[in-house]
Amino acid sequence: MGSAARHCKITAHLAKRAGGPQGDADRVGGGSMAIARNELATSASTVSAPQVEASRLGQVSWALFDWANQPFFTIITTFIFSAYFANVLVYQQELTALKAAYPDKSATELSQLAAAAGQSAWAFTQSASGLLIALLSPFLGAMADAAGRRKPFILVSQLVLVLGCIALWWARPDRADTIGLISLAVIAATIGAEISIVFNNAFLPNIVRPERMGWLSGFGWGMGYLGGLVALFIVLAIARPSLLGLAPPGSPPLLGLDPAAYEVERLIGPASALWLIVFVAPMFLFTPDGKATGLGQVEAARQGIRTLIGTLRKLRHYRNPLLYLIAFMIYNDGLAAVIAFGGVYASATFRWPTQTLGVFGIMLTVLGVAGAFLGGWLDDRIGSKRTVQAAILGVTIATLGILSVSRTGVLFVVDVPEPLDGRGLFGSLQEQVFMGFALLVGICMGPMQAASRTLIGRLAPQGMSGEFYGLFALSGRATTFMAPFLIGVLTGLSGSNRLGLVVVLVFLVTGFTLLWWVREEQAQRVH
User: Is residue 371 part of a domain?
Assistant: First the structure.
């Protein structure tokens, strides 16, 4: 839930410059980061600034990349289109098939099985895209590093994203035969979005001085949240204009869109593509690219592979950072899954319409912005590791609470009446309890994502921050297909959306446990 999703994006708020006349700062990972009180002491090192810092316009244009890309994650893969895909497109097809196959089953049982099939289908689209991202991103990232220039790679991946988004317009509810093609469009768009983010993140150390990296990274992070928030407001205004005072009560969607044909949900694909084209342009125009190395594409690919293999071989000498990367890989999968499937679960459980999902998304996104600032504050005061641990604990408790809510009960053992038709916004006890736990996820996901990237900067050996940020990006994607895949399998086998999401708890608890053994100290470089 929230921009996750990104998400599950790898952006972060690096900590502010450390103070103290004795240089009591851990100068690794592209910035000066204050050591928390009572934390293990680390050896100090310096990272040189870029030779030519980008202009302020170039830096803001870089940050605008998050604003341009975030609507895809917010309104397509997290809150709106994901729920439409699972709980309308697939649900209706499966319900028709189940009625024919099991005429003796009750309507409630058939609906539950159809909803489980929808969640499972969405899970497999996310799993497939995650697997391909894991395979492609390290190779393409190393290839781009060898070539020197990253904008050509960003351009191609953003084009794939645009085409995938445009294709979603054809996700008609009366065309079950298009579900496979729409799934492919979602997979392609997700791959394009995630890979372009890897390339864009790599610009950061080259366009701003180390002591301002935290500010610029945090600014981009905030711009992303705000972009998702604005996109949700636009969807809400079009789908339910009376809710925002733009039309009398009971008015149809704006722009003459047909609610029966789900044109609002389908239009967000092309609209997100248009948004991306407009707002990503400044990055291409004003943010400086790396210098070309003169290597051809084939030689750059070979050099990239050699560099990647060499970095992976070195990793065995750095057991503490390696343990952290494994822990991050696991708990990040859990966070990405709860973000990606929260809206789908809520929509299936409470049968929320688009406008309710929009309000739900807005509330979580606002808290995500607050959480991002909170994460930076906590990081400076208690350290990156403790900030991540606290955030994981919060998300774990919230996920358990979310799973305790069903259509007829809360906290696993308390029975409540089913929500009434025609109720107000979040008008039942179970919806209110669900929202309470969901908002806890919203406030925790910002610190969890932000402090995670700061922590790898603290652990990286002197002079190897670039390599370790590349490994961080790889670990953030290496197994992103696993949680959705297991959710899809377990949901399909159990016929229950709730049981399918138990996978999230396993990933969060395992990652938290491994993180406990990570020491927050800079590794010594092995020569």
Answer: yes
